[in-house]
Amino acid sequence: MNGAVIFPLLLFLIGIFMIGLWSSKSLKTSNSFLQDYFLGGRQLGGFILAMTMTATYGSASSFIGGPGAAYTQGLGWVLLSMAQLATGYFVLMVLGKKFAIMTRRYKAVTLVDYLKERYQSKWVVVLSAISIIIFLFSAMAAQWVGGAILIESLTGLSYTGSLFIFAVSVMVYVIIGGFRAVALTDTVQGIVMFIGTLILLIATIVAGGGISNIIADLVAENPNLITPYGFDGGLTPLYVSSFWILVGVGVVGLPQITIRAMSYKNARAMHQAIIVGTIVVGFIMLGMHLIGVFARPILPGIEKGDTVMPLLAMEVLPAWVAGLVLAAPMAAIMSTVDSLLLLVSSAVVKDVYLNYIKPDASNQLVKKISLSVTTIIGVAVFLMALSPPDLIIWLNLFAFGGLEAAFIWPVVLGLYWQTGNKYGALSSMVVGVGSYILIHSFLPNAFGMHTITFPVLLSLAAFILGSLSTKRIALKNSTL
Amino acid sequence: MNKNKEDTDPRFKIANREAVIGIILVIINFVWWFVFAYGMGSGPIANYSYVMGLPAWFFYSCVGGFILMVLLVTAVVKFYFKEVSFEDEGRDDS
Questions:
Q1: Does domain A3-390 have CATH number 1.20.1730.10?
Q2: Residue A219 with chain B: CB contacts under 8 Å
Q3: Residues in chain B within 8 Å Cβ distance of A90
Q4: Which residues in chain B are contacts of A85 at CB distance < 8 A?
């Protein structure tokens, strides 16, 4: 579309590529390939940990879908999005030191490793590996579509061409660099997201003639836009509050986030990451969604919410700055996708292949398998994203909610409740995922709350009942 | 069984306390967010007051809530969180 916009983007992609290449060097000398490739050897420092958590969590929906929804709904949607502030501190505090100690004791490399050691059950392993592979694969496909559409809209290339560029730039560094490359590129991507948000927020406020002016314009158009209830009064307090489960506390159950809670070096890194993470996630969520609302008086009448953020950047900024700012959603998508790709690969290699097919594989063989599996999954996602599904957010939230309902209690109660056992974990996962799919399909947003609410409660009940009712059997087995 | 050993590991006492702090913080966060948003935001729009150009409910709930949580989280981490080793004593984990 515009050379001045494309050039900074290109620079960004090349920069990411170089970092990936550079961080793959340490893998060559590794003598524990699995730990290093999938977990970065548990050596993450505080700043990198905070950035990789934030960047992995912040995805296409934070930079494209979210501002688009805020554009339509007004300040009520910004209010809703602020439920995400909790993710900045809650995950690391609740999983916290106990998770770090236990996963080290178990020598766990994946979330499934942890569950396997904690519950000693083949079925827990199989079920959790399958749900990770299915759900995260579809989440990944949705994000790739988002990435390709973004490149398409910026460069004017064909969708297939854009998807190809996106796929290649992500896959290369993930495949050769593993977790360390993902974490380091996430850090750069997180910084780009932060700065992009800051620049665009300021430019939007200036272009709109100051905050008071923008708010007055919004009131003139539709006063509901500045209430907490949405443009048509449809955002009820109960509905908005239920997002605290979906995008707030429930994030504890997301494997791409929990895996990060076992990757840090020491307690100091964790402490620092909690503070930095809260600041960064809060600022990006508040800023990006406010930008969506503020865009309304500047660019009225946009029909497709997903185009608000790119159009706004090109409207209120000089071309080359717009290119820099538009690297932010690019970064958000890439930093989510790279983690998902690696995670799905680890589920296949570590949780399925090494557990059940060839437990005695040598370091060299593991290396070969890991690299090829990552490549194959990447290519498969590429093929799937070629004919894109419509609603990015819908698919994304579906995978999100399903995984949260599956893992939140087996992970959290597995840590803090001794009595919890494999029967509880299994029933919790089955009930969580099952009820999520059923409620989502037949009773979406039941009783005015987001679909996630009941599956999370039901899976809690299933975990507790399942564990208590089999307490005696489990005790007997463990003493044998 | 190593269950007893687990119960007495002093590091787990610290970990449990910090997890409880996390839950308390998220409750404070939620209540603050909810009370300001719906307490101040549900009256007629003509009666809205404004802070820095933003509706007061929004300013206190979202902007104020964000700043409050950053301060609280920082204070809690600095004063209540303890540094512990993650490796098990007497076990070679390298």
A1: yes
A2: 45
A3: 22, 25-26
A4: 29, 65-66, 69
Q: Are A79 and A229 in contact (CB under 8 A)?
A: no
Cβ-Cβ contacts under 8 Å, A479 against chain B: 1
What six digits make up the tokens of A410? 């087996």
Phi, psi (deg, nearest 5) at residue B55: -55, 140
Q: How far is A416 from chain B (nearest CA, A)?
A: 8
- In 3-state terms, chain A is what percent helix, strand and coil (to 5)? 85, 0, 15
For residue A461, what pLDDT band results from cuts at 50, 70 and 90? very high
Which residue of chain B is at minimal alpha-carbon distance from A224?
A: B45
Which run of H or of E encompasses B54? strand B54-55
Q: Using an 8 Å Cβ cutoff, are A449 and A238 in contact?
A: yes
Q: Per residue in B30-61, pLDDT tens?
A: 999 999 999 999 989 999 999 999 999 999 99
Q: What is the mean pLDDT of residues A47-51?
A: 93
More confident position, A30 or A191:
A191
Cα dihedral across residues A462, A465, A468, A474: positive or negative = negative
Determine whether A318 is exposed, middle or buried from the number of CB atoms within 10 Å of its CB (0-12, 13-18, 19+).
exposed
Mean pLDDT for the stretch of residues B53-74: 97
CB distance A124 to A410 below 8 Å:
yes
Q: Using CA atoms, how far apart are residues A398 and A139, in angstroms rounded to an integer?
A: 8
B15 with A96: Cβ contact below 8 A: yes
Q: Say yes or no: A219 contacts chain B, CB-CB below 8 A.
A: yes
Q: Tell me whether A100 touches chain B (CB under 8 Å).
A: yes
pLDDT over 90 at A253, yes or no: yes
Q: Which residue's structure tokens are 């290519």?
A: A379
Q: Where are the domains of chain A?
A: 3-390
> In whole angstroms, what is the distance from residue A128 CA to residue A253 CA?
12
CA torsion, ordered B74, B75, B81, B83, to nearest 10 deg: 70
Q: Is the CB of residue A337 less than 8 Å from the CB of residue A369?
A: no
Instruction: Give the nearest chain B residue to A282 (CA atoms).
Output: B66
Residue of A82, A215, A266 lying closest to B33 (CB–CB): A82
Integer-rounded Cα Rg, in Å, for chain A is 22
pLDDT, tens digit (0-9, with 9 covering 90-100), for A317-355: 998 899 888 888 888 888 999 999 999 999 999 998 998
Instruction: Copy the structure tokens of residue A339.
Output: 């983690």
What residues 404-423 of chain A have any CB closer than 8 A to a CB of chain B? 416, 418
**Which of A36, A49, A89, A421 should one mutate to test binding to chain B, selecting the residue with the greatest count of B CBs within 10 A?**
A89
CA–CA dist B63, A335 (Å, integer):
26
Look up tokens 């500045």; give the residue: A226
Cβ–Cβ below 8 Å for A90 and B22: yes
Nearest-CA distance from A282 to chain B in Å? Answer: 6
For A207, A262, A367, A421, the CA distances from A417, given in Å and listed in that order, are 54, 19, 36, 9
H/E run at residue A149: helix A122-155
